[in-house]
Amino acid sequence: MSEPVPAEESVVPRPGLSRRGLLGLLGAGAGGLVVGGLGGAAIGAAVATANAADATGVVHPFFGTHQAGIATPVQANLHFAAFDMADDATRDDLISLLKDWSYAASRMTQGLDVSATGAVGGSPDAPPDDTGEALGLPASALTITFGLGPDLFEKNGVDRFGIAARRPDALKLLPRFVGDALDPAASGGELCVQACADDPQVAVHAIRNLSRIAFGRAQIRWSKLGFGRTSKTSSDQLTPRNLFGYKDGTANILGDDERALDEQVWAAGPSWLAGGSYLVVRTIRQKIEPWDRQQLTEQDRIIGRSKGEGAPLSGGTEFTEPDFAKKDAAGQPAIDMHAHVRLAHPDFNHGIRLLRRGYNFVDGNDPLGSLNAGLFFLSYQSDPQRFVTIQRALRSDLLNEYIQHTGSAVFAIPPGAKQGSYVGAGLFA
Amino acid sequence: MSEPVPAEESVVPRPGLSRRGLLGLLGAGAGGLVVGGLGGAAIGAAVATANAADATGVVHPFFGTHQAGIATPVQANLHFAAFDMADDATRDDLISLLKDWSYAASRMTQGLDVSATGAVGGSPDAPPDDTGEALGLPASALTITFGLGPDLFEKNGVDRFGIAARRPDALKLLPRFVGDALDPAASGGELCVQACADDPQVAVHAIRNLSRIAFGRAQIRWSKLGFGRTSKTSSDQLTPRNLFGYKDGTANILGDDERALDEQVWAAGPSWLAGGSYLVVRTIRQKIEPWDRQQLTEQDRIIGRSKGEGAPLSGGTEFTEPDFAKKDAAGQPAIDMHAHVRLAHPDFNHGIRLLRRGYNFVDGNDPLGSLNAGLFFLSYQSDPQRFVTIQRALRSDLLNEYIQHTGSAVFAIPPGAKQGSYVGAGLFA
């Protein structure tokens, strides 16, 4: 990351963020620190200019109507973490954490250290504010997206943070689906942070520093690294491939399709959530070795598309609409009645489309030498029930023989923070 | 990856590689497959031209004096796998596996599918040769480097493959070091494959397909993904940072320093290994949370360099030689007697330098919410004893309080394969 811009150069008023958390983290030696408060937009402009010639220097604004990382062109790498609040955390702890996280995210997304004193600019007798592994790296299109899980509002019947009454009805545990094999330790979470960047070191740096800031107030419950995005959200992106070798996300909602975003992705309410969304997270283990032993025609039949081009089996090219009525020479449906592309298609699901933002993952191997690989499925929608509808439609999906859902979580994604405010502020107004 | 080049276009004779393994893998339906044999150099030339304008289209030759992936400029991403041979594997199995691996690697490193029929060009009634997730992706500077572990030569006193007499004395288990906390399931291995690329999907595709080719002959024992290379091996690379936030590899051996490579990296013998090397692998868990709580001066003292610039504490810039005799104002050594940079320095280790090629890793988190993070240390040297000498010198390293070695392995790295031959051929001559 770039050296911190001296606070004096900022013409934007300091956002009213509490520094309590960071100061608490830094401990006694931090008294002399000047923690600057720079508006993300001003910083972004400076950094974007400096990095204009650098492809990985893409900078996305942190403040705005919607949080970045949803409609933003999907980046190459992901580090995702679900957090739980500490048992004795208070409402003030939660508010200060969201403020501190927003402040830090508004800086890191602009290619800056986590605070104005950063990795090397503070007192030499204090621990550095920033852990330093991203020093010298550009912003790399980093986006940081915060979410709030159902248990944050009420857990075991206890309203720990005085927000139980504000939980949207739509924010609740997903129902159990046929075939689920969920690991509780890799599911759920009271808060989440999705860090996406075109450099994995930048994404890891973000999660690490946000985890550090949370120390004493919240801790990571589970986390995941992903690579090889499996969706496109920008028309100039090539459709990527999942680990079954098929193009994924051909018909995904594009980030500049305002109408589809309004209809399908942004939540209308309650008021504190308007302009936000809901995130569904599913860790889907792919049984790649059995898949790899299937013949090509069978793989194509299961997906409903051709492996090479990604065209629907009813004909055409990747972007031809599937013709589910078309019959093959034998009089059978060209696209199998239980093909993945058919069961998931909006035509059979009340027009529902999800904005997908998933990533491939490989987490070592099991004792038999099989890669522990799969799809870290992330979808944004205006109501989690939309995901439920599609997931239930996939009950007879031919693909189910080759996949297993091992993790699950759902989060409300607040709208973007206004300059000088923080993500989730509306919840406490 | 690019569509397979039709075998007819090749002007290079087919290398004499057995197709037995791949044919066996493909099963009965594979009888009609034409498995092409293209020389890597010819393919490389074609692909390099096609991708000339694409930064990730860098293509490294597979065949040559040395294996690629050692002196090659270090890439952004790593997938590493250690394999064990099947209990009932024969000498012929081992030879055919090394042939098949070399054939597949000679193609994938050129941006091609694993065979001429590839992901979609074979019989539709057969499983595809290639798993397909890298279709359309360029070579991405992929290198694939093969190694042979001590147990391959003799295990529990049994000479399974008739090569026990050819084991170099230098190839043996590393001694136990102070503080080692090794996990046997994440250590050792009879074979290893190091896949490095500038796209993680390309590196994963390589390991996955090589594992598939090995089916029935060998299986993955343990594996690791890495990102954020922690060394530079090319003078035009910026020095990267490890997860302690410090520049790593400032004084590393560069890939074009022929004299240093000859003196320090390439093995002189035995004859089948001449021009090869030895690879030492150490999984080093970094205790990043305690580290992050240390004051900056203490972090600098432990490393012996400044965090921002990476200059030795004796003064100057990153590339200034450390002056270990220099005293500070208080009359104490400017660089602590137990600083990492001092204990590891060639001046105190008989001039020994290692060619390091390590990567950062983050494998989720532990139940307390700490990131399971660290350095996947890879070093190449002409004799593993050189690593042992330095590792023993680090016995009193101040850094030891913050790290723990949890995995260990050593491999002989054969020289590069000649066009038409395979890696390790000399061992069976």
Automatic annotation (TrEMBL), chains A, B:
CC cofactor note: Binds 1 heme b (iron(II)-protoporphyrin IX) group non-covalently per subunit.
Q: EC number(s) of the enzyme? A: 1.11.1.-
Which cofactors does this gene product need?
heme b
Keyword Ribonucleoprotein on this protein?
no
Q: Give the matching Pfam families.
A: Dyp_perox_C, Dyp_perox_N
Keywords of the record, alphabetical order, are: Heme, Iron, Lyase, Metal-binding, Oxidoreductase, Peroxidase, Signal
Primary localization: other
**Free-text function comment from the UniProt entry:** Involved in the recovery of exogenous heme iron. Extracts iron from heme while preserving the protoporphyrin ring intact.
Record-given protein name = Deferrochelatase
From what organism does this protein derive? Answer: Microbacterium candidum
Gene name of this polypeptide: efeB
